[in-house]
Specification:
Number of strands: 5
Bound molecules: flavin mononucleotide
Shape: globular
Radius of gyration: 16 Å
Helix content: 40-55%
Length: 187
């Protein structure tokens, strides 16, 4: 049984130089977490092993975002996302997550890894408005409704979902350098 904390309106802020890593099987069950994951989420490594990754799911997150992430991963396309996560304490922490795919020698997908960094305030402010609207629509019209809202939101901006994210979350300066060397350690 997954532990479901009482949700608190309290943010966990963590250093932008702290990267959070987790690896899952193809169904999203956790195979590995780094120390920062345990420290920030409040769950021990032992508690997390084998658990479905929706242990981190925050009720403020629209389902449509996970739908898009999983769709990309299943098609073998690496993807990113801005995610509000739920810690064991019920507090939340915002991350920018880059998802990567590992294949076996036969070329079949073996596992997924997510590299997360803290989301800057301007990213949170922009995405929060979008997610609030999507969640609202989702409650009334389901995931199809929120996906079609996202489509019209992007159409108005004249960008694809990937382009929208790229512009919003591209790592800059020292963070880009640190992140890329960090990823090479875990890949
Ligand atoms: C490698 C990997 C990392 C993930 N990390 C998170 C995460 O940090 N937070 C989260 O809510 N979901 C994460 N997910 C997505 C979850 O598997 C799940 O789809 C999501 O929490 C929605 O849960 P639900 O499908 O039960 O609604 C991750 C999935 C993968 C494959």
């Amino acid at each position: 049984m997954i532990y479901r904390p009482i949700v608190l309106d309290k943010e966990i802020v963590f250093s932008k130089k702290k990267f959070i890593v987790s690896k899952t099987d193809t169904k999203g069950n956790i195979l590995f977490v780094n120390k920062n994951f345990s420290e920030i989420s409040g769950y021990s490594e032992k508690e997390l092993m084998g658990m479905p990754h929706n242990v981190s799911r925050h009720p403020d997150m629209p389902r449509a975002i996970f739908f898009l992430i999983w769709n990309s991963l299943k098609m073998g396309r690496e993807v990113s996302g801005v995610i509000k996560n739920l810690a064991k304490s019920g507090e939340y922490y915002w991350v920018i997550a880059d998802f990567s795919i590992k294949r076996n020698h036969q070329g079949e997908i073996e596992s997924f890894t997510s590299f997360r960094r803290s989301a800057p305030n301007q990213v949170i402010e922009e995405i929060e408005i979008l997610y609030e609207t999507m969640l609202d629509i989702e409650k009334k019209h389901g995931i199809k409704g929120s996906l079609s809202y996202l489509e019209s939101f992007l159409e108005e901006k004249g960008v694809s979902y990937d382009e929208f994210l790229e512009e919003l979350i591209r790592p800059k300066g020292i963070i880009a350098i640190l992140l890329s060397s960090f990823k090479s350690i875990f890949s």
